Amino acid sequence: MAEAFAGFMIGITRILHRIKEAGATSEEAAKTPEEIGLRETDLKRLKKWGVHRTEDGRYYVECKDKKHC
Q: pLDDT for 15-31, tens place per residue?
């Protein structure tokens, strides 16, 4: 069970890193799923993990501290 959860967390960490790598770290810099290279369904599921959606369908991870961006 713990291994499955660890794998899940690794997957989420990789997706969040991919979003940040695309430069989508603020609402102004948000990117479409195609620009990030991920499916929209995957991005929608990550709302509770800090992935935000803009009104026009772009996604970003808010990065306030500028340390982990």
A: 999 999 999 999 999 99
Residues with Cβ within 8 Å of 53's Cβ and at least 6 positions away in sequence, in order, are 43, 44, 47, 59
Domain residue extents for the chain: 2-61
- Total-model pTM: 0.82
Report pLDDT digits (tens) over 25-61: 999 999 999 999 999 998 998 988 889 999 999 999 9
Interior angle at CA 14, CA 60 and CA 65, nearest 5: 50
Residue 46: partners with Cβ closer than 8 Å, 6 or more residues away: 12, 15, 16
